[in-house]
Every structure is written in C-alpha cells, then in structure tokens.
C-alpha cells in the first residue's frame, strides 16, 4: 500500500523490522511479499545488529523456507555479524539447525571460519553444543580452518552465560572434538596451529 514503511522498526522488540518478524517466525508468504516490496532493506540490523537472515537462521526448521527466500534475494549479506560478531551460520550451527546450516554452507561467499568477538567460529559453537552432524558438515568444507587444541580450550572456558550448560554437554562435546580430529585429518596435540583441512 502507498505510504507503508516496509523497513519500520519496532523499538519495543529489539528494533526488528517486519522482515525480521516474518523471517524469524517462518512466515514464508509474508517474507515473499516483503522481499518484493520496493525499498526493502534485506540486511537491516536490529538493536543487536542481527539481520532478518540471522533471525531466521536462529529459529530453526520453521524458518527454513524463509532462509531459502532470503538467500536467493539479490544483495543478501550471508556473513552479516551482530554486535557480538556472530553470523547466521554461527547461530544455525550452535543451535543445531542442520538443514539451515547446509543452506548457508551452500551460499556463495559464505565465510565458514567467521569468528565472533570471543574468537568462536561456527565449528566451535557446533562442538560446544554437541552437534555432531553439523560438525561433520563443517569439516567437509575444504576452506575450514581447524585448531583442535584451541577448540578444546574454548569448550573448557565458554563465554559468560553459557557455563551453566557445560557439565551436561561434556560427553557430546568430547565426541565432537574427537570427530573433528578424525574427520579433518589433524592430530589432537597441545601445539596445534591453524591449518587448512586437506582432502584425502
């Protein structure tokens, strides 16, 4: 409709735009209409710096269709970081949204090694939350950078707000760390440095 601001912010809800809410709640038809609207800002950040793609990637399977639509939109920033440096892939990997992680990994220009302000990459987050299938998918990417010792250190000292979950996740985390060493073809050693995974 004439006069409608498709990029208006909702200040009481983190400054999200209509596209944030449609994408984050998996409303495929609404996302489709908004993406077709003149002047739509598909990479608009809310107060935490998160874009509509980040909201969709964080939500999970209900937003898979929305993620597909956003990734197909011209000008989409697949690596847009929030104020903590976390990208859509970081959230998808850390929250166990395997299907969405696969979509993001297939997106042109995806940075599989993007680190947040704590130095955590999507691989670190996936290992921390014990997501073995996502760890395997990330390790299959030729550009993945792996430092097993660094990942282990970070899992033992997670960021504030996540430490309460650590004991319950320890067994799954250890499986992921072993899997990273096995799949990526690197030895688990104290002096491990950043290396590029080589295919066999």
Write the layout of secondary structure elements.
Elements (H helix, E strand, L loop, with lengths): L17 H7 L3 H8 L16 H8 L4 H8 L16 H7 L3 H8 L16 H7 L3 H8 L5 E2 L1 H9 L9 H18 L11 E2 L4
Antiparallel strand pairs: 1-2
Helix pairs in contact: 1-2, 1-3, 2-4, 3-4, 3-5, 4-6, 5-6, 5-7, 6-8, 7-8, 8-10, 9-10
Rg estimate, integer Å? 18 Å
Distance between the termini: 56 Å
The major pleated sheet works out as: 2 strands, antiparallel
DSSP helical segment count:
10
Strand content: under 5%
Report the count of strand segments. 2
Q: Spans of 5+ residues with little confidence (pLDDT < 50)?
A: 187-200
The SSE string, one letter per element, is: HHHHHHHHEHHE
- Kindly report the spatial arrangement of strands forming the biggest sheet: 1-2
Quaternary state of the chains? single chain
Helix percentage = 40-55%
Mean pLDDT level = 84
Global structural class: mainly alpha
The backbone outline, from C-alpha atoms, is: elongated
The total number of structural domains is 2
């Amino acid at each position: 409709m004439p006069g409608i601001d498709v990029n208006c912010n909702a200040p009481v809800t983190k400054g999200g735009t209509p596209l944030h809410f449609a994408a984050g709640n998996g409303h495929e038809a609404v996302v489709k209409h908004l993406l077709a609207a003149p002047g739509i800002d598909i990479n608009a950040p809310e107060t935490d710096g998160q874009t509509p793609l980040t909201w969709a990637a964080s939500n999970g399977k209900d937003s898979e269709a929305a993620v597909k639509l956003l990734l197909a939109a011209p000008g989409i920033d697949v690596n847009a970081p929030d104020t903590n440096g976390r990208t859509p892939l970081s959230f998808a990997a850390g929250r166990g949204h395997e299907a969405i992680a696969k979509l993001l990994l297939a997106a042109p220009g995806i940075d599989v090694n993007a680190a947040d302000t704590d130095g955590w990459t999507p691989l670190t987050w996936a290992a921390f939350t014990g997501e073995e299938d996502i760890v395997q998918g990330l390790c299959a990417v030729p550009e993945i950078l792996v430092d097993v010792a660094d990942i282990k250190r970070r899992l033992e000292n997670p960021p504030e707000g996540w430490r309460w979950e650590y004991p319950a996740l320890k067994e799954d985390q250890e499986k992921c760390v072993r899997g990273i060493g096995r799949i990526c073809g690197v030895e688990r050693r104290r002096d491990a440095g950043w290396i590029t995974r080589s295919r066999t």
